[in-house]
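We now fix the convention by which a protein and its fold are recorded. The integers have meaning only within a learned vocabulary of local backbone shapes. The record below shows the convention in full.
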Amino acid sequence: MTRVKGFTLIELMVVLAILAIVAFIAVPNLSTLIRDNRAESQAEELNALLQYARSEAVIRKIDTFVIIDASTGVVEVRANAAGGTKLRSSTLQTGNNISLDTTAGQLSYRFNGTATPANFRAVICVEGNAATGRLITVSASGSTVLHHKGKNADGNALGSCSV
């Protein structure tokens, strides 16, 4: 008697059922992960633009200005004045349940790297959930800090998505 090698229909159905269950569990978690990573990248991009503006102020020995439109997500770095030469521009992907809130619409760096206004703060959140929020602070000395997810400057829970 010869034995035929292969899978039975029942074995294939069991494997497909297991795959469907795994997909049903994984897909919502995957979409949440993608959305959280998108917000994370937006926070890192804003932090990089702030660091760029400070470095340009020090290197060129000029004042630089960061203009932030929280409603559209447009961030511009300009030289010498708020209406000066555009050095760099980026559009953060706010919307799609990602929000941006700042303490001021403009941040300036002087030629020595110090910043005005002192203690500038920006928060990027997903779906208004402070646990997913990323806080960026700029001290009067001009240094920027991108804080841990869901944490404020003290290391405690962020509390809200507004500054």
The mean pLDDT is 91. The radius of gyration is 23 Å. The first strand starts at residue 64 and ends at 69. The first helix runs from residue 9 to 60.
